[in-house]
Every structure is written in structure tokens, then in C-alpha cells.
Write a structure and sequence with these properties.
67% helix, globular, mainly alpha, 5 helices, two-stranded antiparallel sheet
Amino acid sequence: MSTCIAPGIMLRSTGFRDQPIRPLRAAFAGFVGGYVMALAGYWLEAVLGISQLNFAHAGLRYVSGGRQGWWIVGIVFHLIDSALLGMLYAAVAYPRLRTALRPLASLQRAIASGVVFAAGVWLFIDMLIAMPFLGAGIFARRTESIRPAMASAFLHVIFGVLLGAVYSGERG
């Protein structure tokens, strides 16, 4: 079964019971996960003083080259990326992970698939691309502390839980 997301662009489902892909729900799930992740990151930064978790600053440097007053662009790009990751999750990871995690109950399977996907995002995008781009090095090694990497892993777990739960629409 396939779903048209734009003229000439089809998403194909190959997974669990051949469920159709729901791109709007996927984008919304990614947006919700990214939003709560950013809020939790700002809280960790304020309470624990972990300074490598400023998503708006990361997006700011990526988009504007660090010009002042563009912080909103950074957070908007973080949320857009989160929505796009939600769509990638729905198209690629969700069907396969739901099949692999079949022994779990429905909501548990959805949450576990979101967390597994988010762990991959944490490893490949955050630790190997974003942290070095921000000057912290691979796995934030230049900070000489494990706190930024562990806090980022925690935030990605939050993202994954929300991504899986919101996209699946399952109720406990």
C-alpha cells in the first residue's frame, strides 16, 4: 500500500499488517517530540548547567552563521527537522521495528520503536554531526565531561517515546 504525500511522491508501507503511512500524523508526532525535547533541554541547561543543549543556538549557527537576533530561526529549524524525522520514522523505521518488536503489547511496541529510532538519531546525527559542528567534538569529547552526551541521550529518549506514542495513536 502506498500514500501520496505530494504530486508524484509516494510513500510505500512494507510493515506490520501493511498499515498505510500517515505523513501528517508522523510530522505532528515528530514536531511534538522535538518541541518537548527542546523544552526539556532548556530545563536541563538552566537547572544542571549543561551548555551544549541549546537547540536554537545550534540552528542559529547552522542557518545564519551566528548573527544576533536569529535564535528563532534556530528553533524553527529544530522543529522542522523533528517533523521530517517523524516522517522518516513513519516511512522507514516504524513498519520494520513494529514487526521486530511484535512480542510487546501494542503501546509498548510503539514506544520501543520510537526509542530505537531516536537512539539512531542520537548516535548518527547528534553525536557524529551536530556535536562536532558546535565545536564539542564527537560524543562531546572536547567538553571533558560525559554530561552533554548523556543529557542528549536522555532528551532523545524523550523524543522517541513521544514520537512512537503520538504516531501510533495507541492507548495504554
